[in-house]
Design a protein that fits this description.
The complex is a heterodimer.
Chain A lengths: L11 H7 L6 H4 L6 E5 L5 E6 L4 E8 L13 H9 L8 H11 L2 E6 L4 E8 L3 H13 L5 H19 L2 H13 L27 H11 L5 E7 L3 H12 L23 E5 L6 E8 L8 H11 L1 E3 L11 H8 L5 E8 L4 E9 L4 H17 L3 H17 L4 H15 L5 H9 L3 H11 L6 E6 L7 H6 L7
Parallel strand pairs in A: 2-6, 7-12
Antiparallel strand pairs in A: 1-2, 3-5, 3-6, 4-5, 8-11, 8-12, 9-10, 10-11
Helix pairs in contact in A: 5-9, 10-13, 10-16, 11-12, 12-16, 13-15
Chain B lengths: L73 E4 L5 E5 L5 E8 L13 H8 L10 H10 L3 E6 L4 E8 L3 H13 L5 H20 L4 H12 L21 H11 L5 E6 L3 H11 L25 E6 L16 E8 L8 H11 L1 E3 L13 H7 L7 E8 L4 E9 L4 H15 L5 H18 L3 H15 L5 H9 L3 H12 L4 E6 L7 H9 L14
Parallel strand pairs in B: 2-6, 7-12
Antiparallel strand pairs in B: 1-2, 3-5, 3-6, 4-5, 8-11, 8-12, 9-10, 10-11
Helix pairs in contact in B: 1-4, 3-7, 8-11, 8-14, 10-15, 11-13
The chains are: A alpha+beta, B alpha+beta.
């Protein structure tokens, strides 16, 4: 083995092991390198974290998504994501694909309700090529007509496939009912055959796609994020040379402004007795992404936890709801979830169970909520805090999750929230804080409920609504 | 599928300041929902939006990164034969675990299925911890999680936790591995979980695990790695505490174990190991190893068929078309031999996947199985190549699936691909495969649990660890003649075939064997009197 040991004692980790008096534990929580943030003249932000890996992930996070679409052009963002890798003005589709494959890189993208991301995983030495290709994909996508026609078929087929993933269907319907009549109620992929007669993509033209890019792909709404073996100065230089051309002015000074999306307590039931299991979700309106309440709500979800039939823990699981679910065999799986957007959010519980236990599972889930609002104990909250802290750090395993977090944080908060700050905010959550915050969002509020599958037993909406408070006088 | 569905850690927010977003100065921003002011009385909770840094956090001390890739993996062997290996890496968390040279391949003299049972029973009650809940609670104090995975040749107990909890973690691992109580009620629950898993395997539309079992049974008939990895349904009730103890007595011995760690200092790990693992007495007693199975895997080749009705396998409302799946494999080599790297490059060059979509640029859309097979024959649903490798033998196989009426053409296409592997590889194709293999290796090694598994497995089988950049060097030096050499050797072995579904059109094993020994890979012509 030819490698020699590099024992430079200047990094925090080793200093911590040798002599704890040098750096306090709280300071050492940042055993990770700093995230540096720079803005270009046109408003594009560049953020990166140098972790010293031999590989890196670099990508563009854009503040655009299905929330910015309307009834007529719903599905444009998703369609555009499909068209993105089908050729640019400089590279044909085959040339682009061959370049990426020969670099041994992976090029991917995703679209959500408020964000779109195009990113590439590659070896650290290929960073310049990666930034060049990404900037081409976003700025000068060729969008030729023949490809558009072909991709319509692909999109329709993907829609069909998604319809067999009942979890996605359930959560999409949850948004559709909770935010009915507002842009957040739209599905990312466009109207599906169950929700509307107009199938997605059938009536989208090249003009729609071009308009979408012109309106939404603006430099101040974009972040070039990178993590891995990247040097920040080098990245800024590359951004300046390839992306200074991204426009920052809106045509006719018409700036798209997000209108508030109201939450409507309601329900949707898609009954199909031929399916083996029922998928049910219940949610209340939660906190927006940058609200300080989001941290207690995340702790609350950690207290409720999640469970799956394949967990071997049996009845010795830490979450109260999980224990009940196992003892009475109430469900196959459940999880507490929260989604947040810029001014609103969803806080809920999703579970999968067979058709004879839906009512009981719903009762105990709401019971878990009421418990959070009224009688949650210090030991539960301590567990929730620990679990949350561990999972926040544990998720950052690898350059892609780190890069994704950098991109989303800069879009959401204008900065990357350091781990020490998350820890401080989480530690400030005491049982009384948790009870107050949960009561504010959950207690006596109208929920949105969705059921898919053999849901004859799913509790009537009025009874669900009346279980959102306890008569405790 | 690229939709992001949010669960409890996802935050999506678009800055609401689109019209004036020329600067990124951190200004207090109360979004549109300012009416939702937090009004509860003085609980001391900071009411500051996440867009603003929280005051009172100690000033951060950022790590400077300096070539941590060049850290050496340190290895120590204790007096009882236990090896300790560690790789340092900066960070608040570490992954530590015990890897044991024990798996389904060692179950020749026992009822099959012990490996699956041990996996489900892992981290249950032990001498020190009364129940799984207690273990999870102790781990939660250090922000840790635990997991056990068994495979055909290795069993791995791993814990990821904060670095300051190292001592507790090693003590917990020693307890879980050497002192499990194996209570009756735990064994009952395990039986239920195993039955559920077997049912799930048979029900799911993707038959990959089943096919992997079948191809191993075909290639290594009745020995070592050909033994079933999943418990056969009639063995579930045969396994109990006595059987498990007699197995553990023979195989959970210190000379067959490695304590591996990533993200910790080597001396600390060795100290903890001396404290908890050096003289630990396992609960099944110590006695000289009587029945250790040291057999070498014998590649036999052969065919395993399973007729199954695949016409209605979809679990949701959208129907999945009826498919017949076949897997054809040939002997490759063990991961200890030099030929292993050329085989890995060959596997990367063949690539393949589902016909619907490769998954985007970079996922192998220019590999041979895509270019020659899936892009030309659109009726094939799937063609993927896999490479399984153990310490004494290996298997390179291709999985393909199509409509039952086209099984014969499908088999012929696959046999022709095998024969073409023996031809000369194009230069660009070879370079691309090498780069993709190197980049996949480096990308996988970004994550700490993967580094841990790599360190553990390499030290367990060879006693040393090849660092990633060494492996990259070996990959770069593969030439087209290396590929040709290994393929010629591979094509001389007897084929192993696994088939699942409607098998009426499946060619006989002799025909497949003839095709793989012919020059062009075509099946022998059959003449039918009646059409």
């Amino acid at each position: 083995m030819a490698a020699s040991v590099c024992r430079v004692g200047s990094t925090v980790g080793r200093a911590l092991a040798k002599s704890r008096s040098v750096i306090s534990y709280a300071q050492s929580l940042l055993g990770a390198p700093e995230t540096q943030l720079t803005a270009l003249d046109n408003g594009l932000r560049v953020a990166s974290e140098d972790t010293g890996h031999a590989t890196c992930t670099v990508g563009l996070w854009i503040g655009a998504g299905s929330r910015y679409e309307n009834e007529r052009n719903n599905g444009t963002g998703f369609f555009l994501e499909h068209m993105a890798f089908k050729g640019t003005k400089k590279h044909t589709q085959t040339a682009l694909e061959q370049q990426v494959e020969s670099m041994g890189a992976h090029l991917s993208a995703y679209t959500s309700r408020e964000h779109t991301a195009y990113y590439m995983k590659t070896l650290a030495k290929d960073l310049p090529k990666a930034v060049e290709l990404l900037s081409e994909v976003v700025q000068s996508c060729s969008l030729n007509e023949a490809e558009i026609e072909q991709q319509r078929g692909v999109v329709l087929r993907e829609l069909e496939e998604v319809e067999s993933n009942l979890q996605e269907v359930c959560l999409d319907l949850l948004h559709a009912t909770a935010y009915q009549g507002t842009p957040l109620g739209q599905s990312v992929m466009g109207p599906s055959s169950t929700a509307s007669v107009i199938k997605s993509g059938l009536n989208l033209t090249r003009q729609d796609l071009v308009e979408y890019i012109n309106i939404h792909y603006k430099a101040p709404r974009m972040v070039l994020a990178a993590a891995g073996g990247v040097n920040h100065e080098e990245l800024v230089g590359l951004a300046k040379s390839h992306m200074s051309g991204v426009s920052f002015e809106y045509e006719g000074d018409v700036v798209p402004v997000l209108s508030p999306c109201r939450f409507t307590g309601s329900d949707i039931r898609m009954r199909d007795d031929a399916l083996p299991l029922a998928h049910v979700a219940i949610a209340v309106e939660g906190a927006s992404a940058s609200s300080p309440d989001i941290v207690p709500l995340m702790v609350a979800n950690a207290v409720i936890g999640s469970y799956d039939l394949t967990y071997g823990g049996g009845k010795h699981l830490s979450s109260r709801l999980a224990r009940i679910a196992v003892e009475d065999k109430l469900c196959h799986s459940f999880q507490a979830f929260s989604s947040s957007y810029s001014d609103t959010g969803l806080l809920g519980i999703y579970f999968v169970s067979d058709k004879h236990h839906i009512d009981d599972m719903m009762h105990w889930s709401q019971n878990a909520w009421m418990n959070l609002c009224t009688t949650v104990t210090e030991s539960d909250v301590a567990r929730g805090r620990n679990a949350l802290k561990a999972s926040l750090v544990g998720q950052l395993n690898g350059t892609t999750p780190i890069c994704d977090e950098i991109g989303r944080h800069v879009l959401n908060y204008g900065r990357r929230v350091p781990l020490a700050e998350w820890n401080a905010r989480i530690d400030a959550v005491t049982p009384s804080v948790l009870r107050d915050v949960c009561s504010k969002y959950i207690y006596d509020k109208c929920p949105a409920v969705v059921g898919v599958g053999p849901i004859e037993q799913l509790t009537d909406y009025n009874r669900i609504r009346s279980a959102m408070y306890w008569l405790r006088f | 599928m690229n939709i992001r569905v949010s669960f409890w850690l996802k935050t999506n927010r678009m800055a609401t300041h689109m019209s004036k977003c020329r600067t990124w100065n951190r200004v207090h921003r109360f979004g549109i929902a300012a009416y939702r002011k937090y009004s509860s009385s003085g609980s001391g909770y900071p009411n500051i939006s996440l867009s603003t840094p929280l005051p009172g956090i100690p000033k951060p001390v950022f790590a400077s990164v300096d070539g941590q890739e060049k850290y050496e993996t340190k290895i120590t062997t204790l007096e009882n034969g236990l090896k300790i290996a560690s790789q340092n890496k900066f960070g608040q968390f570490c992954t530590v675990g015990i890897l044991i040279n024990s798996g389904s391949r060692h179950e020749a003299k026992y009822p099959s299925g012990i490996a699956q049972f041990l996996e489900k029973l892992a981290f249950s009650s032990t001498a020190q911890y009364g129940s799984k809940d207690e273990i999870l609670l102790t781990l939660e104090k250090h922000g840790g999680i635990c997991d056990c995975q068994t495979s055909r040749d290795t069993t791995m107990y791993a814990v990821s936790a904060e670095v300051k909890g190292l001592d507790t973690v090693v003590s917990l691992l020693s307890d879980a591995v050497l002192q499990p109580r194996l209570l009756d009620e735990e064994i009952e629950m395990t039986k239920m979980a195993v039955r559920f898993e077997l049912e799930d395997l048979n029900m799911r539309p993707d038959p990959e695990p089943l096919l992997t079992e079948m191809i191993h049974a075909a290639a290594y008939r009745g020995n070592t790695v050909g033994l079933p990895r999943f418990c056969p349904a009639d063995n579930v009730d045969k396994l109990d505490k006595t059987v498990l103890h007699s197995y553990l007595r023979n195989y959970y011995r210190p000379e067959r174990m490695v304590l591996a760690g990533v993200g910790i200092e080597h001396e600390q790990l060795v100290d903890s190991a001396r404290k908890y693992l050096l003289d630990a007495k396992p609960v099944w007693g110590t006695s000289p190893a009587a029945n250790v199975d040291l057999s070498v895997a014998q590649y036999t080749g052969g065919i395993v068929k399973m007729e199954k009705d695949m016409s209605d396998v979809s679990l949701g409302p959208t129907p999945i078309p009826e498919l017949t799946h076949i897997m054809i494999g040939l002997e490759s080599c063990s991961f200890l031999e030099d030929d292993f790297i050329p085989f890995a490059v060959l596997n990367m060059m063949m690539g393949g996947g589902g016909s619907f979509s490769a998954g985007g640029p970079g996922k192998g859309m220019f590999t041979r199985l895509y270019l020659n097979v899936l892009n030309r024959h659109h009726w094939m649903y799937n063609a993927t190549s896999y490479h399984h490798s153990y310490e004494d033998s290996g298997l390179l196989c291709i999985h393909a699936s199509a409509d039952p009426r086209q099984v014969r053409e499908m088999v012929e296409i696959i046999t022709r691909e095998f024969i073409q592997m023996g031809g000369s590889a194009g230069e660009m194709e070879l370079e691309r495969a090498k780069t993709q293999l190197k980049s996949m290796l480096m990308m996988n090694l970004e994550s700490r649990p993967v580094i841990f598994e790599d360190v553990g497995r390499q030290v367990l089988s060879t006693g040393k660890r090849k660092l990633p950049h060494e492996l990259c060097h070996l990959i770069s030096s593969v030439t087209a003649s290396d590929i040709k050499k290994v393929t010629t050797k591979m094509l001389r072995s007897k084929p192993a075939v696994a088939a699942l579904g409607d098998l009426t059109e499946l060619p006989s094993y002799e025909h497949i064997q003839a095709a793989l020994s012919s020059k062009d890979g075509r099946l022998p012509r059959i003449y039918r009197l009646f059409r």
